[in-house]
Amino acid sequence: MFAKPIAGRTTAAAEGEVVVLLIGMRINHFWGVHHWLPVLAAMPRMLRELSRDRSRGLLGYTLLSGSPRTYYVVQYWESREKLYAYASAPDMFHRKAWAAMNRKEKKSRQHVGLWHETYMAPEGSYESIYADMPPYGLAAATGVLPVEGRGRRAADRLAHRSSTERKG
Fold it and tell me: When you count CB atoms within 10 A of the terminal residue's CB, does the N or C end of the chain come out lower?
């Protein structure tokens, strides 16, 4: 259940572009439980759905809480096309959950806030380092390498280019 730390310094084994989606909710009024609880419960269902079918493009995710009111997920995606495809797929739960939320929006808006931010990070614009940590974040999504594999300094890791990127 609890991952063991990897001794020393590691970095994420990510190659190429990384798509990062931050998505979350804020409980505006705790007493409106029937408005915000379905929203809170929808995300784990979507994550289970995506975890069962890796071809959909979700590489990994981290669940976080910003406060007793704010909950969000950092998601790492294979490509923007796969993220867009999942978001609009009529047979996937996201589309159903979004439609239900839109039907209730006027009443729910006062009780629950929703947000998301999407970032496309081309290779050479991200780097990572983890010291005595289990795989976490981008490293949990893409794998772990000894830091020496990408460089001991952040500038060296930012300068890394995968073999697929060099060909392009």
Answer: N
User: What pLDDT score does 103 carry?
Assistant: 73
* Helix H or strand E encompassing 38: helix 33-52
Q: What is the mean pLDDT of residues 102-112?
A: 71
**What is the distance between the terminal CA atoms of the chain, rounded to a whole angstrom?**
40
**For residue 117, which phi and psi values (nearest 5 degrees)?**
-135, 135
What is the C-alpha to C-alpha distance for residues 37 and 42, in angstroms, rounded to an integer?
9
Q: Which residues, at least 6 apart from 33, have a Cβ–Cβ distance to it below 8 Å?
A: none
The whole-model pTM stands at 0.88
Length of the chain: 168
Q: Does the structure show a pLDDT above 60 at 1?
A: no
User: Which residues have CB under 8 Å from 162's CB, separation 6+?
Assistant: 15, 16, 123
